[in-house]
Write a structure and sequence with these properties.
The protein has a domain of 152 residues. The protein has 9 helices and 28 strands. The strands form 7 sheets. Strands 2-25-24-23-22 form a 5-stranded antiparallel beta sheet, with no helix packed on it. It has a 4-stranded antiparallel beta sheet with strand order 5-4-3-28, with no helix packed on it. Helix 2 crosses helix 3.
Length: 547
Amino acid sequence: MLTKVAVVFLALAGFGYIAAVFVGDVLVYIVCFSVLVAAVLFGLLVAISNLLWRFSGGFLGRKYKVKKCYFNLVFFAWAVLFLIGARILNKSLLADVSAPFEFLGNGMIFTFSIFLAWNLIRRGKARTIFAGSAIFILFVGALTFVGSITSGSGKSWKVDSTDALKSLGYVAWVPAEDNIEKRGVIQYERTLAFEGFNLYNSWALPEVYLIDMQGNVVHKWATSVKGIDNLRHHAEIRENGDLLVVAGDQMLMKLDWNSNIKWKTRMRAHHDFCVGRNGEIYAIGRDDRLVFRRGVPVPILDDYVAVISPDGTILKKISVYELVKEHISLQRLIEIYRWILSYENMKKIFKLKAERGYSCKSDSGFDILHTNSIKIMDRDIEGFCKKGDWLISIRELDFIGILDVGKKEFVWQWNEGELDRQHYPTLLENGNVLVFDNGVHRNFSRVIELDPLSKKVVWEYKAEPREDFFAPWMGSCQRLPNGNTLITESTKGRVFEVTREGEVVWDFYNPDIKTKRKKRRSIYRMIRAAKPESYVHPARSCSGDVR
């Protein structure tokens, strides 16, 4: 009977899975895949149970008068006890112990579940089961106590600041215990810094600020769109005072000087965009997608570049996955399935779908690309690029490359073990490439200038000591007309300007803080307007000052 149930369950799950592949919806596919996995596991347990009964049923029946249905019930109870028990043990009681203690704990729960199953089969005495349970509880308690002491003996109770930064991800508030007293501009070397206005946005706020070199807010844009509570990604001011800005995972917007909406384009825009000479906008977006690798369907978060008309109409989309799929290892795609099968992750997927309408989000197991920058090349450079090519940065591949849009292939790329979760590469006037190299795995960041022809680093900025400059997430850099470099250290809520020699000549800390909690709001990116006097808008006075 149980075998027939397993066969029917597996057949129905298989048909549902095939149907989900044709439907193409990521959530439907994930659900049907999970049901198929459950059906396979159920069938496997039934097969093992039948095999064990075949070899031991005669003995158990004669000596203990056990019937097959009772044996199957005990076997499934054992399997559930072991799987759930091991999960509870590892996720709670033994969550912070070292690997040997975790292995002992798993061995103990396996032994205890076998002990219970055997006593149920032979209908052992209650006091025997009680004694075994008491021994198991005492053993787990001792293991937890000894394991926590041993594991903690070589560690500091204070979490290392580097590890704390890595664990933050993209968050609004970052630790500021060591610099909470620093607010606004704390250093300004007038003769060495490049004069201009600075455009920046704090993470998870619906506002974009324009400040002068002293840190005074000279103008602010704020969105009034219902449901938009942040303008957290790239913002760019146009010469007439309009503002193009990304509302992360929701839309790209164009606001006038007074924050009135000129147009908005609904798309899961994120990170970056750039404006071509013809006024077309090239914006990075993302969507849930079911792709096929060697005939096997895989749910991913696919990035794309949307080409948008000056009035906000999407003209076409180009998939980033299709451009770089050969760079993505099969192992990385397999990891997506491992991530899906976690109960916690499954809950997150359903919650996200209910709240936002999509299943795949940034920095989840589906995020195999994380494209974070796009720039249009404005000139031909032999051996590197031609005018109109795209310079693209893909974080998860440690990859920057020049895309020939017509051929849809990369004609130049750099990912030879040098970059580590980089952001915001830009083409300089001298033909070199400037890039913010986050250094997630080496625990310090740097800004590098790369000769694209020789692929040699010709200049770099690192702090002394190196670990003092570290932004594992976000970050940007801008080469200024006087040769200085403006650097956004996002996860400290800090922006600073350095000379070619590495001297800090302008230093700004986000004044948006929580004093009691010693937190500072992070800054996604700051851009300095090289020619702020060229802006034309209603707020300009006769003297040309920005109000």
